[in-house]
Design goal:
Number of strands: 13
Order of helices and strands: EHEHEHHHEHHEEHEEEEHEHEEHH
Number of helices: 12
Shape: globular
Largest sheet: 6 strands, antiparallel
Structural class: alpha+beta
Radius of gyration: 19 Å
Distance between the termini: 12 Å
Length: 316
């Protein structure tokens, strides 16, 4: 069995989630170093290809969030160079990164998803914003939730309680993407469910219940210590927890993911889980839910990182 000695952690990137990625990269690097693995940390820049070619690491551990990191682009480059890496392949990344496409696939599997519409910025210009806003509110009903069709960390995402609020939310959303996903606002308990596969098949980690102090799990609530309460496992009955885990496992399988992922969902009063989105590069910071869930499952985060990297090496 090949020994794991040298890992390159990719962190940073040019997306709005740069700082989160830097913190995630630091967490992974420190964890691996605790287990005596040699780790280098690099950003995605003009020196990366030379670094990978001239001094190739055994494994690359990408913790890039947002575009390039999660849309499959950087993983496509890693495959071209021939370097093994942790995480989903490019085609699976592209599928999961497109929230409307992921929703459609999960709905085909019988998973409950929010009613909604994905519309490009140009539609509001070409068809007339006032009429389209009214039709969205009439068809989907208020309250609504607006978010970019791609991306994470809640950038450009906002709850909406009026048609005027919908207009304002879309302006913010289009600052981050050329297309918006407008959905009914699902009521219930917000959960993040990690899925981990270190070689024996994907397993759902304990669901993490998310209770932000302002009621909305926005960027500040996600990454400011003390702004959000987390309960792991979530304060739901066993049947609801099992339903949430099953949705996360279904998403991981249907989207063709590997190694690890995180699915965000909401469990309603009826105990049924509604799928929101799946992240192929979940945050790994000190306030992120994936490490929290791993700890609740009795797993050492450092060992998890090493096993994922080692698995990538063996796969190669």
């Amino acid at each position: 069995m090949a020994d794991l000695d040298r890992v390159l952690v990719l962190a940073g990137g040019l997306s709005p989630e740069h700082e989160v990625s830097v913190h995630s990269g630091r967490s992974v690097a420190e964890a691996l170093r605790r287990l005596d693995v040699e780790v280098q940390v690099a950003d995605v820049d003009s020196t990366l290809l030379d670094r990978l070619s001239d001094d190739p690491p055994q494994v690359v551990f990408p913790v890039l969030h947002g575009s390039a990191g999660e849309d499959g682009a950087i993983r496509e480059v890693l495959e071209l160079v021939g370097v093994p890496y942790v995480g989903a392949r490019p085609s699976a990344c592209r599928l999961a990164y497109s929230k409307p496409a992921a929703k459609a696939l999960l709905a085909e599997q019988g998973v409950r998803v929010p009613r909604g519409a994905a519309l490009p910025k140009s539609a509001f210009h070409d068809l007339g914003a006032p009429a389209l806003l009214d039709r969205l509110a009439e068809r989907l009903g208020l309250p609504l939730f607006v978010k970019p069709d791609r991306g994470g960390s809640a950038f450009g995402a906002a709850p909406v309680t009026s048609v005027q609020g919908l207009s304002t939310a879309l302006v913010s959303c289009f600052a981050y993407s050329d297309s918006a996903l407008v959905e009914e606002q699902v009521q219930g308990t917000e959960l993040a469910v990690g899925v981990l596969d270190t070689g024996d098949g994907p397993v759902a980690l304990p669901p993490v219940e998310i209770v932000p102090d302002g009621g909305v799990y926005d960027y500040a609530a996600r990454y400011t210590a003390g702004r959000t309460e987390f309960f792991c496992p979530a304060r739901l009955d066993a049947e609801a927890l099992a339903a949430a885990a099953e949705v996360a496992l279904t998403a991981h399988r249907v989207l063709g993911l590997r190694d690890f992922s995180r699915t965000d969902l909401i469990v309603g009063a009826d105990g049924r889980a509604t799928f929101l989105e799946t992240n192929v590069a979940p945050g790994l910071t000190e306030t992120s839910t994936f490490p929290m869930a791993a700890a609740a499952a009795g797993l050492d985060f450092a060992v998890v990182c090493r096993e994922l990297a080692h698995q990538a090496l063996l796969r190669h």
